[in-house]
Design brief:
about 425 residues; mainly alpha; Rna Polymerase Sigma Factor, Chain: A; 20 helices
């Protein structure tokens, strides 16, 4: 029984976006697609433990979801109109040569349409492409579940009312549309890289791998776009460390403590190659290219002691000019601590308190700097705040251990 349920979970991770995309193409309605896909998976949860997993789970789910969608349309007494719409989608003229025929890529461009706000694009993509539940997305946005559910519902209604096309944009439209898609993919990747939900796996490989796959597809569409290449390099250099990031006991392993021999050498090599290609292009880099270069410096060091921190600080300085956000300033301060000491870094970090007080990494950074300065009591309070705000189980375990290693009395429970 447990094996079947594990299989259902894995199939959901692998097939959700395919099923939703297939139904969206056929019926032209995200709401119908999502509901039918959810019903199909619910049916699988009910039946597969008794009858077994079908030989082709994806095909079974797609067929079942199509039946569910048709049943819904019949109930709504719109069968004829909807069937006409579905038939029209089948009769569409073929795409021009050079456009990638991938339904999930079409789905993500639909979810990332500029008519929607950025937060809505991310939420819709996480739901429709990533398959996250509304509670998981709500936690990622730090909002109530009902509010997030309403946001996603309104987004689907807007796509339907505005008749936003379900297709990859034309070649001339791609440059202005792709930046929004890259932002969404980066956030989807981050949700997999460090999952926000306390009831989810700390690292969600299905999300990181899907973000990488879709970024590869966009790179095939736009091979000369530096930021597409930069984002792909950044994802690869980050994903290469995945197996070393969580210990057997489920605790986050910091970069300086990771077994670098377990990193994926092929991913590291590909990421480094992409970074070198962008440097050779001689074009001013954007945000993702700089972030990829920073990761290239980290992954070039065989030991943390070999890290070129001056280069990391210089790259963060460049990034601050491109993306002057408090989170970038926080990350630069972490690198500065390695060069100039924790006291210098803490002065910068404390100036960010008003902007980042609700961000767990801010308090975790303060805690580490205070620990290194020997200020255990203040460090403990900062760790407590970071633990309170952190949603990732592995990160919470790591922060708890670091706090409990501090000298001095523990905080009463």
């Amino acid at each position: 029984m447990s094996d079947v349920r594990e299989t259902i979970t894995r199939v959901h991770h692998e097939e959700w976006a395919r099923v939703v995309a297939s139904l969206t193409k056929r019926f032209g309605d995200l709401d119908v697609a999502e509901e039918a896909a959810a019903e199909a998976f619910a049916t699988a949860v009910e039946r597969w433990p008794d009858v077994g997993v079908p030989p082709n789970p994806g095909a079974w789910l797609t067929t079942t979801a199509n039946r569910k969608a048709i049943d819904r349309l019949r109930r709504e007494n719109k069968r004829d109109d909807k069937h006409k719409e579905a038939q029209m989608s089948y009769d569409d003229p073929p795409e021009p040569l050079g456009v990638i025929d991938d339904e999930r890529l079409r789905l993500i461009f639909t979810c990332c349409h500029p008519a929607l706000s950025m937060e809505t694009r991310v939420a819709l993509t996480l739901r429709m492409v990533g398959g996250l539940t509304v509670p998981e997305i709500a936690r990622a946005f730090l909002v109530q579940e009902t509010a997030m559910g309403q946001r996603i519902t309104r987004a689907k209604a807007k796509i339907k009312a505005a008749r936003i096309p379900y297709r990859v944009p034309d070649t001339e439209d791609l440059p202005r549309r792709v930046s929004g898609v890259l932002t969404v993919l980066f956030i989807v990747f981050n949700e997999g890289y460090l999952a926000t939900g306390p009831d989810t796996d700390p690292v969600r490989h299905e999300l990181t791998s899907e973000a990488i796959r879709l970024t590869r597809l966009i790179r095939a569409l736009m091979p000369d776009d530096g930021e597409v290449a930069g984002l792909l390099a950044l994802m690869l250099l980050t994903e290469a460390r995945r197996t070393a990031r969580v210990s057997a006991s489920g605790e986050l392993v910091s970069l300086d403590e990771q077994d670098r021999g377990s990193w994926d050498a092929a991913m590291v090599a590909e990421g480094h190659r992409l970074v070198r290609e962008r440097l050779a292009a001689g074009v001013a880099p954007g945000r993702y290219q700089i972030l990829a270069a920073i990761n290239a410096v980290h992954t070039s060091a065989r030991d943390v002691r070999d890290t070129d921190w001056s280069q990391v600080v210089a790259l963060y300085g460049q990034l601050v000019r491109v993306d002057p956000s408090p989170i970038v300033e926080l990350n630069r301060a972490i690198a500065v601590a390695e060069l100039d000491g924790p006291e210098v870094a803490l002065a910068t970090v404390d100036r960010l308190s008003e902007k980042l007080d609700g961000y767990h990494a801010f308090h975790a950074t303060r805690a580490d700097l205070l620990r290194r300065m020997g200020q255990s009591q203040q460090a403990r309070a900062a760790y407590d705040k970071a633990i309170e705000l952190a949603g990732n189980t592995a990160e919470t375990a790591y922060l708890t251990r670091r706090r409990d290693q501090l000298a001095g009395p523990s905080k009463p429970s």
